[in-house]
User: What shape does this take?
Amino acid sequence: MSNHMFDAIRGAARPDATFIETLDGRVWTYDEMLALSGRLAATLEKLSVRPGDRVAVQVEKSPEALMLYLACLRAGAVYLPLNTAYTIAELDYFIGDAEPRLVVTTPDAAEGVRSIAAKHGAHVETLDDSGGGSLLGLARDMAPDFADVARGPDDLAAILYTSGTTGRSKGAMLTHDNLLSNALTLCDYWRFSETDRLIHALPIFHTHGLFVASNVILLSGASMFFLPKFDAGEVLRLMPQATALMGVPTFYVRLLQHEGLSRETAAGMRLFVSGSAPLLAETHKRFRATTGQVILERYGMTETNMNTSNPYDGERIAGTVGFPLPGVSLRVVDPETGTALGVDETGMIEVKGPNVFKGYWRMPEKTQAEFRADGFFITGDLGKIDEKGYVHIVGRGKDLVISGGYNIYPKEVETEIDLLPGIIESAVIGVPHPDFGEGVTAVVVREPDTAIDEDAVREGLKERLARYKQPKRVIFIDALPRNAMGKVQKNVLRESCKSLYTGG
Ligand code: MLC
Ligand code: AMP
Assistant: This one.
């Protein structure tokens, strides 16, 4: 029986070779990966997780957590990773919407999660980041040689929630072939081989760290240093033993602030990849001047995996995201009419290919609204294609803030702020931020005699929203600027707040 994604991973696995090395020097070979993911897959089966069932996972980053993703592939389950920053209030929505059979959480959070899971009929097990928790306890008693469940290219492998411009988050359904086709393309395009050692410092609950970084390593039989989180000092310490780094722009901004970054430290590296948010041309330039290395910027999204990349051999141009990847069709159209635009004309970026997801979980209307009749997915990103074929992202058609590579939909934050006592209304915007790229900023109108201030707004959001979604600053004004149609003019607010984090 064949399992589309895991057969490919198994085929690339080199038994005694290192797959993962952690900061404490612990090594996981490919054989150990096969054994533990097999034991965990058997555990899932024992816990009545059937093919197609969702397994929701909110745990700290660890090799075992990655093995759980692989176990889900092998057991035919649908992996549903959740940002560790999500609060219980946020979790309640995800569990209610996805109806997972099993929720895996940390021992610390288990009590709160159990009460939510019970409401939605889900079972709970725990996993911590140092090899403990009830799930691994069960796995130890299982045989390592699990017979993988048959899964075809179109079967679901994962659901990743992505915030919605209106209303609640949407679950992007990704198939085995979405993941496999994209990872194989990237292995080839970026020349990954078994001699590579990647510094993996991204979280593993999003596309970038989970699929781009981990799947590329697995499918090229390479190895990775697995860091619990990004730390510039640790990354620089490991750099002389590594060949590649994948990161969000904030990684590069922080590396540049570190005195340890130099030509010598980076000399053995063959590839620095940046994505998930715009990399400033200035960062690109400074990184080149300091290290002699040219960052390769690429563009993707949860729904589509990776769409474009600057070339490996050709010129990597700052401020562009390169060319459509092999097999990916990309066009720029007039957002209203859908008519294709010419060279250098700005419009909506649309993509089609084996990388593009199957739709939003249980939201057929939303899915339909974001696809054209000819199968192109409407990304919500505004861009243009220059005369050499390089794609430029010039803005967003969607009201979205990207902070340190995390997406925040203003609507969600505004809704929570507006619920606070003493608040009349609010507008949430992204303002240039030297570290996070954009800083979530709330512009708020309060009732005349209320005592609510900046601290009270932040305090009020603490239990409601993940930390990264919370405004870095709250600014009070008398009235929000509106156009003739009554729409809040966020561009006016962005202009008046533009120096909030950068000074000047
Ligand atoms: C942490 N904080 C953030 C934040 N990350 N605030 C805004 N934006 C973020 N991204 C909060 C912390 O809770 C803390 O709050 C304060 O900011 C400072 O924390 P820190 O210690 O400086 O942050 P750190 O833990 O170092 O995290 C920063 C980071 C991390 C950039 C390393 O956010 C990160 O790893 N981002 C990567 C996100 C990612 O993988 N995106 C890919 C999505 S996939 P306080 O108040 O407690 O001090 C995708 C598709 C594609 O987009 O194309 O790839
Ligand atoms: P997410 O929904 O978290 O997957 O984020 C996807 C969004 O991140 C895209 O729609 C883009 O707006 C943005 N993005 C990803 N890569 C880049 C990039 N290299 N440059 C600019 N924006 C990017």
User: Anything to note?
Assistant: The mean pLDDT is 96. Residues 151 and 174 are 13 Å apart (CA to CA). Residues 30-46 form the longest helix (17 residues). The pocket of adenosine monophosphate (ligand 2) is lined by residues 162, 207, 275-278, 297, 299-302, 321, 379-381, 393, 396, 402, 407 (CB under 6 Å).
